[in-house]
Specification:
Layout lengths: L1 H4 L2 H13 L8 H26 L2 H50 L4 H11 L3 H14 L4 H12 L2 H16 L3 H43 L9 H19 L5 H21 L3 H7 L4 E5 L2 E2 L1 H7 L3 H10 L8 E6 L4 E6 L5 E6 L8
Antiparallel strand pairs: 1-2, 1-3, 3-4, 4-5
Length: 359
């Protein structure tokens, strides 16, 4: 009855998707439809229970409907994840399979025998697809027709292009060995390109994190505080890091990938900085460097502040004698807040050129 109630076209599409997913659990379209109904019933029951616990008719209706809809579509999402994973497995195994096909054909094997060698050598999604083609051919189906259907239904562009090249080679009588070598070289080039793109992403994130940690460990500099040798240092670091980030890829596409990665990483760090725990990792706490007219030498040494910088901040506040300073605080942004005896705290505009922040 379920089979008759399922539209033929929708049933065939679902069958194709189940095949692409590797037929998990040997499910048929009818079995999958039953799974969706059962999942909807189970999640609807859970939603009903939540609604009863909340004790509201409105919540009861909402949780019941949401549970039913969620359960009905969860199997679809699960199937999509299976299909995507299998396509990724096919894509990953294609270059190695191409290399083995080239070796087998150059050794004198026919194309069908070369496919059989691949299915014997590898046990993955791609070898399963090749084995399916060989079974259909052994049952009398034309080889080109079986391969064409495999390429079209797989959803993997590189595999489809490879199959079309083989079909054209058969139709025009071109040597299949040459076509295989061309396709194998193209597959290797694309694999290297994808690896380099991920390498660019990794390089950008690692260098960004390394600089962030280095600034946290060795101190903090404001742009307005740069001296001439600070500027020279920044320029040299920028030029030194360029090869480390880009590696051998100097293409426009590689540069675009790096820009996206660095902007995205910086945006993520900015968002994480709103979290108190993360903020404390990279933002040092205020440090008292003068208390009741006395330098706190241990803190000043740890923070890299000298007496001349403190006295400069005092003069900006019109304080001449150290005895008139009740408190001086090195702030996280590099400013020095000075509290004269008997007055409220004010912050100097002077930022020290450099200070080391301990953890």
């Amino acid at each position: 009855m379920m089979s008759r109630s399922t539209p033929q076209k929708a049933r065939q599409n679902l069958m194709n998707r189940l095949d692409l997913a590797g037929r998990p659990g040997n499910l048929t379209p009818e079995d999958f439809a039953a799974v969706r109904i059962v999942a909807a019933a189970v999640t609807a029951a859970v939603g009903l229970g939540i609604g009863l616990l909340l004790g509201s008719v409105v919540y009861l209706v909402i949780s019941l409907a949401a549970g039913a809809v969620l359960g009905f579509y969860l199997p679809v999402l699960w199937l999509k994840q299976k299909v995507d994973a299998r396509r990724a497995e096919i894509q990953k195994g294609l270059p190695d399979a191409m290399d083995l096909l080239v070796i087998a054909v150059d050794a004198g094997l026919g194309f069908d025998a070369a496919l059989a060698r691949v299915t014997d050598k590898y046990k993955n999604a791609l070898s399963d697809e090749f084995a399916k083609v060989l079974r259909e051919v052994s049952l009398g189906r034309p080889r080109l027709e079986a391969m064409d259907e495999m390429g079209r239904s797989s959803g993997v562009e590189d595999l489809h292009n490879f199959i079309q090249a083989i079909i054209q080679s058969e139709q025009f009588g071109t040597g299949i060995g040459k076509i295989l070598r061309i396709q194998a070289d193209e597959m290797r080039r694309k694999r290297r390109q994808r690896a380099q793109e991920w390498e660019l992403v990794l390089r950008g994130v690692v260098i960004y994190a390394a600089l962030l940690i280095a600034l946290r460990i060795f101190g903090k500099r404001e742009v307005g505080q740069f001296t001439l040798y600070d500027l020279v240092f920044i320029l040299l670091v920028a030029n030194a890091l360029q090869p480390a980030i880009t590696g051998p890829d100097t293409s426009l596409g590689g540069g675009f990938v790096l820009i996206v990665v660095l902007v995205g990483t910086n945006y993520l760090v900015g968002k994480l900085d709103n979290l108190p725990r993360f903020h404390r990792l990279f933002t040092p706490a205020p440090a008292i460097i003068v208390r009741d007219g006395q330098y706190v030498s241990e803190v000043m040494k740890r923070e890299g502040v000298d007496q001349e910088e403190v006295e400069m901040s005092m003069r900006e506040h019109g304080v001449i004698d150290m005895k008139d300073v009740q408190l001086a605080v090195l702030e996280p942004d590099g400013t020095i807040s000075v509290v004269p005896t008997g007055t409220a705290m004010t912050r100097t505009k002077h930022r020290i050129r450099y200070h080391h922040r301990a953890g």
